[in-house]
Amino acid sequence: MRFFSYLIRGDTLVADRWQWICRRLPRTRNGESLLDVGCGSGAFTIGAAQRGYRSLGLSWDERNQKIAEQRAKRCRVTGGDGKEGRAEFQILDVRRLSEREGLKQGFEVAICCECAEHILDDRQLIRDIAGCLKPGGRLLFTAPNFLYRPMSRGDLGPFCREETGWHVRRGYSPEMLKELCEQAGLRCEEIGYCSGFFSQMVTRIQRRVSEIHHWLGWITVLPLRPLAILDALLPAGVWPGYSIGMVAYQPRFPRAGSP
User: Fold this and answer.
1) 43 touches 2 (CB < 8 A)
2) By residue range, what is the domain housing residue 187?
3) pLDDT(226) > 70
C-alpha cells in the first residue's frame, strides 16, 4: 500500500509507466539483478524489489537518493539474502555510467524511464546501459513520444541545447529507438506506448490546477485517476500515447562471423 501511495503522488503519468513495466517484468524468486538508470526518488527501483529483484537505483541528486532510501525502508525492501528482492541507491551522474566499477555485465534487467530525453549524447547512454547487461539481459525503456500532443506550454519547447536538467529533445520515434539499439548492439524486441487520451486529460487538469498550488492539483485529480483504465478502449492510432516504450535484448551469442 505504501508503494502504491508513492506511485500516485505527483505526476499522474508515473503510474502508467509502472504498469507498462510490470507487464514486462515478471515476478521472480531467483534474485536477478536490476539496474534503474536515472531512478529519481526510487519508485520503480522499490517496485522492482517488491517483485523479487535485487535492484540498484542510480540518481545524480542527493536529495532524491535520501527520499528513495527512506521510502525503501518504509516498504521493507532494504534487506534480503540474495533470493529476496531488495533496493539500494547510489549517487551517479548517468553520463558517467561506464566509469563506475562493478556495473559492467552485472545485471539481468535495466530500466531507463524518462531519462534519455535529458541527455545530449543519448547514443552513449544506451551503449553504457547495454554494457551493464549480462548476455540475455533486457532493457525496459520509456521516453516522450515524438508525436505526443502537448499538455502544457513546456511540451512545445524550446528544448535546451545544453544539459540543464530539462529536455534536450522533444522525444523519440520508433525508428530513433531502433537506431539507438543498433548503435548499442541491442536487439529491439518491442515498441509500444503508454498514457493515452484519458490519462493525458487528467494530467492536463492536474498541471493547470497545480499552477495555483501543487497539493491542490493532486487532490483535484485524485478521484479522476481511475479514468486512465479507459485508455485501453481507444486504439493507439486514435490518440498518440504520451510516452513511447521499448524492450531491447542483449544477445546471448556473438553474431556469426565475429570473434
Assistant:
1) no
2) 2-197+236-249
3) yes
Predicted confidence band of residue 81 (pLDDT cuts 50, 70, 90): low
Q: How many domains does the chain have?
A: 1
**Non-local CB neighbours of 232 within 8 Å, separated by 6+ positions:** 196
- For 163, how many CA atoms within 13 A lie in the half-sphere containing its CB? 11
Amino acid 235 reads P
Q: What mean pLDDT value characterizes the chain?
A: 92
Q: Are 47 and 3 in contact (CB under 8 A)?
A: yes
Burial category of 8 from C-beta neighbours within 10 Å (exposed 0-12, middle 13-18, buried 19 and up): middle
Question: What's phi and psi for 34, nearest 5 deg?
Answer: -130, 135
- CATH number of domain containing 66: 3.40.50.150
Q: What is the pLDDT of residue 80?
A: 61
Give the Cα separation of 85 and 51 in Å (integer): 7
- Collapsing DSSP states into helix, strand and coil, what is residue 88? strand
Q: Dihedrals φ, ψ of 94, to 5°?
A: -65, -15
pTM of the full structure: 0.93
111 pLDDT exceeds 70?
yes
Nearest CA-CA partner of 251 in 95, 104, 82, 137: 137
